């Protein structure tokens, strides 16, 4: 068992975006929620393959100018989060380390055992508070991925607008019209 070292000490104040620049680039996902640091271990290859498949499916139908990016930082009013997939609106600045929510149309979180509670309970509220119009949560079910699609209501919370299962090839309209077929994605 690894012993703690004297090299790292918790901050005596709330965490801020600038503090993230001092953390190691070790594969962990470092996020700030209400001033607290949340560390998630690196996801497994199945998680990344599923996120890549979702990104490809969204991107194949994307109108000109839209960008679909995996694991970029979002600077939100209550902290800094890194969704698995983010859809950026046209004319969103490039080369930005922490994007502002006004430039985001959709965020997608792929659940992992280490992120389940945050993806189901914490992050939707933070994304809604930031005014992000659409949120998808993807579970890796026994028979394939299941997408839970949410739409922002009155800039307050998300309402579930539908689910897509592994046997449901469906056309959706957020953030543009596209056909999704989770049966073609890895489990």
TrEMBL record:
UniProt GO molecular function: endonuclease activity
Domain Putative restriction endonuclease: 19-172
Keywords assigned by UniProt, alphabetized: Endonuclease, Hydrolase, Nuclease
Pfam hit, one: Uma2
InterPro entries reported for this sequence: Nuclease_put_TT1808, Restrct_endonuc-II-like, Uma2
Lineage, broadest ranks: Bacteria, Bacillati, Actinomycetota, Actinomycetes, Micromonosporales
Protein name: Endonuclease, Uma2 family (Restriction endonuclease fold)
